[in-house]
Amino acid sequence: MKNQLAYSVFATMMLLSSFTLTISGTAEGMEAGYLSFTSNRRGNYDIYIIDRYGENLQTLIGGSADELHAAWSPNGRFLAYASNVKNQNAVLYDIYVMDMRSKQHWQLTDHPANDTTPIWSPDGQWIAFVSNRSGAYRIYRMDINGKRLRELTRGGDAWGPAWSPDDRWIAFKSLDDGLPYLFVMFADGRKSRKLARSAEIGHYAAWSPDSKRLAHATRELGRGIKIATIDLDGDHLRGVTLGGFNARGHLIINHSPAWSPDGKWIAYVSGSFEFKHQSSIYVVDAAGEKHSDSIQLTTHLSRNLSPAWVPEPFFSVSPSRKMITTLWSKLKQH
What we know:
mainly beta; Neuraminidase; disordered C terminus
């Protein structure tokens, strides 16, 4: 009841017409998991959903504006994202939230700056995001009503916050002496420390479900950028994807990992230096690069970015038809 009262006072409500999204899938497919991601396959960036086998593709949010960086609340009821729906000419983004039950969208930030990359705290009471409202890009925290704003990082630019499942840490990327590094800090912004060198693109890291390891993009000399995991002491670096060259002979860029809730899989984005306008979503065994081949989920020749695992409570499964069905707001089927 307390949470319902808090959600009811979100700022700037925008009602959208109701629509029903039906994703055909068996119980086996449900166990495999679903991911949301962003793609510009229709010109502007929209948010889609797909299963771990690259099937059951659906559009979640689409329109004339860009919608980016989808982040699911822990209970699966809300989706935070960045959109330039009010500033398409200036290409400035604000943070929005979509409620699955009430079929409403709310605008949480309204500032003449660029607000992007929202993430939820594990208790669902806070949202961290990146903004350049102070000049440099820094990480901020606000409550679920868009209030009680607090700046968490100082100094130079910071990107890609990732909140640990145990609620203790926020990981992020920043520069030190002009070089990109992976950092961690306490969730209230105290005591940031440098963990490891990182790649300058793919400014996202992902926590393991037990909060003991981080997956991030790291550069391998002469072999592009790959996904690796590291522990909180900055030790035990372990490759998850291979570097090297793709079938066209182009140097590979792997970035933006997302660790599955069961800890078994890591989704990521893969592209190349030569074709930065094209990238695909892949999934790989989290155990490491020697254990399995990556599975390509998207094949459309466009930019497919920002994978995020969909929480299981997002779905309601009908025992009679074994269909996965949920209500959403103004959805269009792909």
